[in-house]
Amino acid sequence: MSARRGVTILGCTGSIGCNTVELVEARPDLYRVEALVANSRVDVLADQAKRLKARMAVVADESAYPALKEALAGTGIEAAAGPAAVVAAAELPAEWVMAAIVGAAGLAPTLAAVRRGAVVGLANKECLVCAGQLMMAEVEAHGATLLPVDSEHSAIFQVFDFDRHDAVEKIILTASGGPFRTKTRDFMAGVTPEQAVAHPNWSMGAKISVDSASMFNKGLELIEAHHLFAMPEDRIDIVVHPQSVIHSLVAYIDGSVLAQLGSPDMRTPIAYALGWPNRIDAPSPRLDLAAIATLTFEQPDEIRFPSMRLARAALRAGGSAAAVLNAANEIAVGAFLDRRIGFLDIAEVVERTIEGVDHCQLGSIDDVLAQDREARKFASDVVRRAS
Ligand code: NAD
Ligand code: MG
After folding, report:
1. Which of 100, 111, 155, 201: disulfide with 16, CB 3.0–4.6 Å?
2. Under CATH, domain 5-148 is a member of which superfamily?
3. From-to residues of CATH 1.10.1740.10 in the chain
4. Class of domain 318-387
5. CA distance 368 to 361
6. The ligand 1 atom nearest the CA atom of 220
7. Ligand 1 pocket check: which of 101, 212, 214, 369 to mutate, most ligand atoms within 8 Å of Cβ?
C-alpha cells in the first residue's frame, strides 16, 4: 500500500471545511492530517484536531490562542495563532491542501501552498477573482495542481478536454438563481439577511449564500472559470437552472455538449478533488432522475441582478478591476449582514467603488493586496454614507 496522503485544511470550521473533515475522517487509511486552520471557533477546531490527530491547529484570531492552547493541552498537537501562522500552516509538507477560507483572506495561505507545488483543492474562489493571472502563473511556475471544488468548476474540470482546448467552443455555467430568482426588485429592496441566506438548494456559509442571492456568486464564478480554463469572457455563458442537478457544461465545436450531474451536495466535488486522480466514496444522496422528472432552464436577468453585468465588465477591463469588485463586494455583503445597508445596495456599493477607485495593472501579489485595501476603504466610505 502507498503512503497516506498528507492533508491540510484551510478554513476547516466552515461549511466546505466541515464537509472536508468528514470525508478525510472516513478514510484514515488514505489520509493523515498535517494542519487544520480556522478563524476563531476554537471549540470546533480543537475537536476536529483531536479526532483527526492533526499535527498542528491554527487560529487566525490571535486572541483565541490561549483557549486553543488549553483545549489542546496534553494532546501533543501543536497550537499557533495569527496570520503568519496561517501561512506557515499552509507551508507544512502536506501533499494536498483544501483552500476553504472565505474571501481574499485566503489569498496568502493558498499562494503559500501553491508555491511549494502542492495539490490544492480550491474552494476559495475569491483568490482567483482578485489575483487570477498571478495565481495561475505561480501554479505553472511551481508545478502545483489546482483542482476546483466549486461545484460548477468541478463539473467543467471533469468534462473539459484539456488536450484539445481548441475544440471547446464555450463553457456554460449553471446557476440556481438563488432565493430571489422569481422576485421583483421592489421585493428584494426589503429583504433581510435571514431571507437572503436561506438558499433553496445548497447549505453554505453566510457570505456565499448572500452572493448566491445577489448572483454575485455567478459573477465571481465567471471570473474564476476564465482563469481556470483559459476561456475568454465571451465564451462563458450563464444559464439559470433552478434544480441544481446539472452542475455545468462544456460545448464542443462539433455540437457535442458534455455535462456533469449530481445531487446538490458539496461532498461530491470535495471528494472528487480529495481522491483525484482516483475517485473515493462520498455519502451524497444519489441522483434519482425519475423522481426529479423535470429540469428547467432560463436566461439570467441582468436587470434584476446587475452583479453579472458588473463581473463581465470587470473581466473585460482586466488589470485590477476584478480585485476591486471582489473587495467591494466583501465589504458590502458584510454591511448587509450587519443590517447597515439594504440588499440592493450591495451592487450599488460595488459599482460605485469600481467607478471610484483608479484601476491599475497588477504586477505582484503586493499590488493585489494594496488594491484590495484601497477598494475596501472606498467601499466602506460608500457604505458609511449610505447607512
Ligand atoms: P464559511 O464561512 O462557512 O467558512 C469559512 C472558513 O474560513 C471558516 O473555517 C473560517 O474560520 C475560516 N476563515 C475566515 N476568515 C479567516 C481568516 N482570516 N483566516 C483563516 N481562516 C479564516 O464559508 P464556506 O461556505 O465554507 O466557503 C468557503 C469558501 O468556499 C468561500 O470562498 C466560498 O465562496 C467557497 N465555496 C463554498 C461553497 C459552499 O457550498 N459552502 C461552494 C463553493 C465554493
Ligand atoms: Mg458554485
Report:
1. 100
2. NAD(P)-binding Rossmann-like Domain (3.40.50.720)
3. 318-387
4. mainly alpha
5. 9
6. 34
7. 101
